Amino acid sequence: MSSVTERFLRYVSFDTMSDETSPTCPSTAKQKLLGAAIVEEMKEMGISDAFMDAHGYVYGTVPGDPSLPTIGLIAHMDTSPDASGADIKAKIVEYNGGDVCLNEEKGIFLKVSDYESLKNHVGKHLIVTDGTTLLGADDKAGIAEIMTAAEHLLTLNGKHATLKIGFTPDEEIGRGADLFDVKGFAADYAYTADGGPIGEIEYENFNGASAKAVIHGLNIHPGSAKNKMVNSQYIAMEFVSLLPVHQRPESTEGYEGFIHLTDMKGEVELSELCFIVRDHDMTKFEEKKAVMRSAADFINAKYGEGTLDLQIKDSYFNMRKHIEPVMYVVDRAKAAMEKVGMKAVEVPIRGGTDGARLSYEGLPCPNLCTGGENYHGRFEFIPVEDMEKCVEMLIEIMTGAK
Ligand SMILES: [Zn+2]
After folding, report:
1. In the chain, pLDDT over 70 holds for what percent of residues?
2. For domain 3-204+319-399, is the CATH number 1.20.1440.230?
3. How confident is the model at residue 401 (pLDDT cuts 50, 70, 90)?
4. pLDDT at residue 315 above 50?
């Protein structure tokens, strides 16, 4: 078994699911168990300054040629709360085409009809789940690839760019960059290894915001409610009806943004609606927020001031603006991809990345492929051969020309 595969399987045995409802950082203490294990491994490898800070961020340096730029490689340790990340039973299957049986007992199959990209992987070895949990390639593949690349760099007697490693908690709940020490990291630029199929490079993402609407009603015994009861749930539905139906995720693709109702709860007295707002284009992004505000104003004018409280909070912005002036960062990655036999493809992200936030904080940070697919779900998989290719790509980035 290759060292990147061995590492990957070890990391996915740690349950590191993050938790949006937790106020702490890391959001779940168990992420620190993986962080501690990685620090220990880094030290054993010879990364003497490796450490984990109080918030579960792991850092370390592989010193290289000081005349070359200092390059960061970043990945996240948590897994998505969308699917269970506990007790993952990863297995390696030789893929010869057709559907893959994940779980005989439960009759769970990874089907070509659902996941057409499987056709690209005939002849490779796929790491899959038993169909009951996610795999955690997002983003433990990134960690395993960075660690394996670092291990190789340590054998090169400093003939490479200085590597700064950063592993963050809580990326999946949008907080991975919150307490990232950009200054201490001291890289000229960086890459997150948190992407999909090999060859993908991303430096354009959504502008993102979250919105919460809290609607206050008044509960009265329904028998004597006439002209007195105010049912917050009906007002919540009215608010939703004021938002454009064609701007929902299920109706949009490519560069089309959306307003997405992620969850709702309600009773007569109080209802809460949670949304996310997304658009690549800043003007259209602001327009979407304005539509929500004007719907809230309408509700408050109709039912009285304070009926609906709308809070909109920006989460991240499109990093393109900060990458365009330093396109050599993208070019370096593309050259490395092509050198190791990948075909570089630029993909606009319909989501966000920690790299976007870091780019805004002065650390230009495009996102690179790790080889994984079907993230955040039970059908997540990653080909062993593609992970190995990504390790080669990372090494090439660190050893390639200026
Ligand atoms: Zn990820």
Report:
1. 100
2. no
3. low
4. yes
pLDDT value of residue 126: 98
> Please, how many CA atoms are within 13 Å of residue 272, restricted to the half-sphere of its CB?
6
Domain 207-316 has CATH 2.60.120.10: no
The pTM is what? 0.85
Q: Residue for token digits 């490693």?
A: 165
Centre of ligand 1 to C-alpha 257, Å, is 20
Report the C-alpha gap between 12 and 7 in whole angstroms.
9
- Ligand 1 (ion): residues with CB under 5 Å are 138-139, 194
Which residues fall within 8 angstroms of residue 179, CB to CB, at 6 or more apart?
25, 53, 55, 57
Local confidence band at 219 (pLDDT 50, 70, 90 cut-offs): very high
Cα 188 to middle of ligand 1, angstroms: 22
DSSP string for 242-308? TS-GGGSGGG--TT--EEEEEEEEE-SSEEEEEEEEEESSHHHHHHHHHHHHHHHHHHHHHH-TTSE
- Please identify every residue annotated as catalytic: 78, 171
What is the whole-number distance in angstroms between the Cα of residue 59 and the centre of ligand 1?
A: 18
Q: Do 249 and 276 form a contact (C-beta atoms < 8 A)? A: no
pLDDT over 50 at 402, yes or no: no
pLDDT category of residue 316 using cuts at 50, 70 and 90: confident
How much distance in Å is there from the Cα of 281 to the middle of ligand 1? Answer: 23
Mean pLDDT, residues 306-329: 94
C-alpha 230 to ligand 1 mean position (Å): 43
Distance 235 CA to ligand 1 centre (A): 36
What is the reported pLDDT for 94? 97
Structural domain boundaries in the chain: 3-204+319-399, 207-316
Tokens of residue 351, six digits: 């989501």
DSSP H helices in 22-136: 31-45
